[in-house]
Amino acid sequence: MLVDPSGRGSRSTDYPWAPSDEEWERTIEEVERRWGEHEYHEHSLREANPKAWHGAAGGGELLAAFSAATQAVAAARELVPRSAESCSVHAGACELVDSRPQGQAVDDVRRMLESTARGRVSMSPIVEAILAASG
Fold first, then answer.
1. Could you tell me where the DSSP H helices lie in the chain?
2. Is residue 101 assigned to a domain?
3. Which residues of 55-81 are buried (b: 16+ CB within 10 A; e: fewer)?
4. Is the residue at 19 inside a domain?
5. pTM for the model
6. What is the CATH number of the domain that holds 72?
7. Which residues neighbour 25 within 8 Å (Cβ) at sequence distance 6 or greater?
């Protein structure tokens, strides 16, 4: 796994496309009700980055982008035990070419994934450092 950050979280006159307070309340209620369901997390990943969802890394792999390493690691730790697959988390820049992420970070995470045992989550040194620094 490699969500699009926003500068503001709620709707205002200068940011009218953000979710309203009522929409945020519904989102929070859904998260509390459905957290841990494989289908919920899969849907959340599709919503957050629809262009990168469809096996974009090749070979049926899922490649998702997050604005924070802690989010990526939390998602990986939720999804991996339910799917018996493996997951690798790396931080780095990539670009979308024909709606598919490409670049050195994608190549790096693919190599990491090749050596990650099924049912395990691996993290690159940069992600480990980010997590350590975030407490």
1. 21-34, 38-48, 69-83, 104-114, 125-134
2. yes
3. ebbeeeebbbbbeebebbbebbebbbe
4. no
5. 0.53
6. 3.30.70.1230
7. none
| Residue 73, domain member (yes or no) | yes
Q: 105-125 as b/e, with b when 16 or more CB fall inside 10 Å?
A: bbebbbebbeebeeeebbbbe
Each residue's pLDDT, cut to its tens digit, for the chain (135 residues) gives: 444 444 556 778 877 777 888 988 898 898 888 887 767 776 776 666 555 444 444 445 667 767 677 777 887 877 777 666 788 888 887 776 776 677 888 888 888 888 888 888 888 888 888 888 876
Q: Judge contact between 67 and 3, C-beta under 8 A.
A: yes
Q: Is residue 30 part of a domain?
A: no
Burial of 5 (0-12, 13-18, 19+ CB in 10 A): exposed
Contact 48, 3 (CB under 8 A): yes
- How many domains is the chain partitioned into structurally? 1
